[in-house]
């Protein structure tokens, strides 16, 4: 196991410990954002946008003041919510229609949060470092989002 894989394995365990017995989605989003912001190197923003009435609305986050509403299909976050696919962008300035909430952000990783196959939110991670996120970062963050999705589903069925 590489150091990066070990790091994400540990981070997944910490995430599960934080959210395991908590049913409040907003509280879990807040703690996941705080944990990732604290543990990930070279990130300047980590947070969630919730899909409400057909648009992304700012949720719990860590970092500078952010855009409050993002239309589905617009920018990296809106594209993720529209396609339901991870967006790993090495240079956001080359992304057509990029929405710059923080002009110092250069790379972005956005992962959809899905329940029953439907996007309900996205997790957005920004970095000032170009090409900050690799495939191992993507896989690690996806595993954390999957644990969050499982928590939501388990709590809904409890």
Automatic annotation (TrEMBL):
<dbReference type="InterPro" id="IPR029016">
    <property type="entry name" value="GAF-like_dom_sf"/>
</dbReference>
<dbReference type="InterPro" id="IPR003018">
    <property type="entry name" value="GAF"/>
</dbReference>
<dbReference type="InterPro" id="IPR051330">
    <property type="entry name" value="Phosphatase_reg/MetRdx"/>
</dbReference>
<dbReference type="GO" id="GO:0005829">
    <property type="term" value="C:cytosol"/>
</dbReference>
<dbReference type="GO" id="GO:0033745">
    <property type="term" value="F:L-methionine-(R)-S-oxide reductase activity"/>
</dbReference>
<feature type="domain" description="GAF">
    <location>
        <begin position="38"/>
        <end position="144"/>
    </location>
</feature>
<protein>
    <recommendedName>
        <fullName>GAF domain-containing protein</fullName>
    </recommendedName>
</protein>
<dbReference type="Pfam" id="PF13185">
    <property type="entry name" value="GAF_2"/>
</dbReference>
<comment type="similarity">
    <text>Belongs to the free Met sulfoxide reductase family.</text>
</comment>
């Amino acid at each position: 196991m590489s150091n990066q894989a070990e790091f994400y394995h540990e981070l997944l365990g910490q995430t599960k410990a934080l959210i395991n017995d908590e049913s409040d989605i907003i509280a879990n989003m807040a703690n996941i954002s705080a944990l990732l912001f604290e543990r990930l190197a070279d990130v300047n923003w980590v947070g969630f946008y919730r899909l409400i009435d057909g648009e992304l609305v700012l949720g719990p986050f860590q970092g500078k003041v952010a855009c409050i509403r993002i239309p589905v299909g617009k920018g990296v976050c809106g594209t993720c919510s529209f396609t339901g696919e991870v967006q790993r962008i090495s240079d956001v300035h080359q992304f057509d229609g990029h929405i710059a909430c923080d002009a110092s952000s250069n790379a972005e990783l956005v992962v959809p949060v899905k329940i029953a196959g439907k996007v309900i939110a996205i997790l957005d991670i920004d970095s000032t470092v170009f090409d900050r996120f690799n495939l191992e970062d993507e896989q690690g963050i996806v595993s954390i989002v999957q644990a969050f999705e499982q928590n939501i589903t388990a709590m809904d069925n409890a």
